[in-house]
Amino acid sequence: MSINQVGPTDESAERDLPPPPGVEVPGVRVGEEVDTMSTSFLFRFWTLPCFRDSTLTGVASGFSVGVLRALRTRNGWKGLDVFVGLSAVVSGVSWIYCRANYRRERDKAEAMVALALDPPPPPGTIEEIEV
């Protein structure tokens, strides 16, 4: 095959193959992927939900308090220490809070889909009385 010829390459052919039977394709839900201890999320961590928000919250708060500390003590290194430490702490706390909300919303959405696929029986029917 020449360089200018357009066609499938070995790499694209491998990508288009279906997975073997019994193997689930990762990436449907990020929470499942992280919970199964897959390390592929480490190479694309910026795509994880809540990453951007928690990082920006941590950096903004750390920068604000770090600048105030540097101005108060007239020592830039102390301000830098406060910036780094507070950024890490606030980012971590914000990440945990955001992920808890994300999981709660995901569970609500799954419950709504399950309810839509299997609606409860109408009131007054025999099925309702047995339950």
From TrEMBL:
Pfam entry (one): Cox20
Any one GO CC term of the record: mitochondrial inner membrane
Organism superkingdom: Eukaryota
Subcellular localization, as worded in the UniProt entry: Mitochondrion inner membrane
Record keywords, A-Z: Membrane, Mitochondrion, Mitochondrion inner membrane, Transmembrane, Transmembrane helix
Chief location: mitochondrion
BP-aspect Gene Ontology terms: mitochondrial respiratory chain complex IV assembly
Annotated segments matching region Disordered: 1-27
Residue ranges crossing the lipid bilayer per the database entry: 79-98
InterPro entries xrefs: Cox20
PANTHER family according to UniProt: CYTOCHROME C OXIDASE ASSEMBLY PROTEIN COX20, MITOCHONDRIAL, CYTOCHROME C OXIDASE PROTEIN 20
Family listed: Belongs to the COX20 family.
Name under which the protein is recorded: Cytochrome c oxidase assembly protein COX20, mitochondrial
Record organism: Rhodosorus marinus
